[in-house]
Amino acid sequence: MPIFVTPFAQLDLIRQPEQQAEPLQAFDAADEYLLAHLHEQGLASSERVLVLNDSFGALAASLAGHARVTSSGDSHLGHLGLEVNLARNHLAAESVRFVPASETPVGPFDWVLIRIPKTLALLEEQLIRLHGQLAPGARVVAAAMVKHLPRAAGDLLEQYIGPVQASLAVKKARLLLATPEQKAAPASPYPSRYRLEQPPLELVNHANVFCREGLDIGTRAFLPHLPKHLGRIRVADLGCGNGVLGIAYALGSPLAELTLVDESYMAVQSARENWRAALGERPVDIRAGDGLAEQPADSLDLVLCNPPFHQQQVVGDFLAWRMFQQARTALVKGGELWIVGNRHLGYHAKLKRLFRGVEQVAATPKFVVLKAIK
Fold first, then answer.
1. What is the mean pLDDT of residues 293-297?
2. pLDDT tens-place string over residues 89-138
3. φ/ψ of residue 320, rounded to 5
4. Theoretical Cys-Cys bridge with 263: which of 52, 76, 188, 296, CB 3.0 to 4.6 Å?
5. Is the previous residue joined to 199 through a cis bond, with omega within 30 degrees of 0?
6. pLDDT recorded at residue 313
7. Which of 47, 157, 52 is nearest to 99 (CA)?
8. Do both 216 and 250 map to the same domain?
């Protein structure tokens, strides 16, 4: 893999989760541009830097030891990437403080470096939370590859921070430089809520939750076909989002022991709040994680999954395939993986390579619900 070379450091960086012959880098030209600008402006070791949405730690690891660095983002895999890359480059773990996006980083910060996230609602919530956290004379700089930079990102910076100046493009990357102004404390529109008729639920969705404004059509196709078990069965909702599949299953299976896992901290926060509202103090394990990587082998009877088809801006079935492999390892012999997926993704054939039996439970014109038996 190429070395990430900036005025602050030369780093050997890898993405998470690791895959053999990784075709993608753990950094891009927008990271390089942002760090070059910071170096040009001058950075004192006493200054406090907040890094938002650093994909795999390229920015925070570069600045470790050069300033007092806090990194915040919504991706558990991004957090894992930061930890792995600090260790890989012999940098102290405590040289960067990490704050999940479900919490507010506490300033005052002299610099805020932002990678524009795919979900602009996450950016908006992060900018809202910066109110009262900026030091006098603080500078806020956002970066993105031009192809991933919507006009609305600049509008949000202007609305919540102050006037914005766009840089020239360099290697197809651009910076947005915002000058902080005194503004009234903003009210956040997040979390949002929507209601389901069946099962009757009101669901809370924090800013970065997938399909925040309403139930996604894949889950809508899955819900009527969820299995029901009356016994003490061990079940995981893998990639749980706001928790709707796990909660709906739990409502129909009163003795089941549930684990809900997602790599988004805001999804986990939403799922916890939704579980409590629907099921009170019923025991549950809801956690941020790298799928079922930490789940003991042969420890589950059933896995429910509506797999993602992208990681940040990268589209593909790598994460879904990995989730299927994790599910197979975590399931007991005879255990079942139930998934919903777009017909065109061909999950039926992929599951047959891992499981001894695969059958179609239901179908709509766009989606299939599949059951795979270990």
1. 95
2. 999 999 999 999 999 999 899 999 999 999 999 999 999 999 999 999 99
3. -60, -45
4. 76
5. yes
6. 45
7. 52
8. yes
- Residue 238 and residue 261: Cα distance in Å, rounded? 5
Supply angle C-alpha 288, 141, 162, rounded to 5: 105
Same-domain pairing of 75 and 211: no
Q: Which residues lie closer than 8 Å to 277 by C-beta, 6 or more apart?
A: 201, 202, 204
As given in the structure block, the two tokens for residue 244 are 């709707």
19 lies in which domain range? 4-178
Token match 């910071």: residue? 38
Token look-up 């129909």 returns 252
pLDDT surpassing 80 at residue 68: yes
Record the tokens describing residue 338, joined without a space.
């139930």
SS3 readout for the chain: CCCEECCCCEECCCCCCCCCCCCCCCCCHHHHHHHHHHHHHCCCCCCEEEEECCCCCHHHHHHECCEEEEEEECEHHHHHHHHHHHHHCCCCHHHEEEEECCCCCCCCEEEEEEECCCCHHHHHHHHHHCCCCEEEEEEEEEEEEHHHCCHHHHHHHHHHCCCEEECCCECCEEEEEECCCCCCCCCCCCCEEEEECCCCEEEEECCCCCCCCCCCHHHHHHHHHCCCCCCCCEEEEECCCCCHHHHHHHHHCCCCEEEEEECEHHHHHHHHHHHHHHHCCCCCEEEECCCCCCCCCCCEEEEEECCCCEECCEECCHHHHHHHHHHHHHEEEEEEEEEEEEHHHCHHHHHHCCCCEEEEEEECCCEEEEEEEC
> If phi over 0 gives left and psi between -120 and 50 gives alpha, with beta otherwise, what is residue 234?
beta
Instruction: Provide the pLDDT for residue 22.
Output: 67
Q: What is the CATH number of the domain that holds 156?
A: 3.40.50.150
Say which amino acid occupies 344: H
Same domain as 349, residue 209:
yes
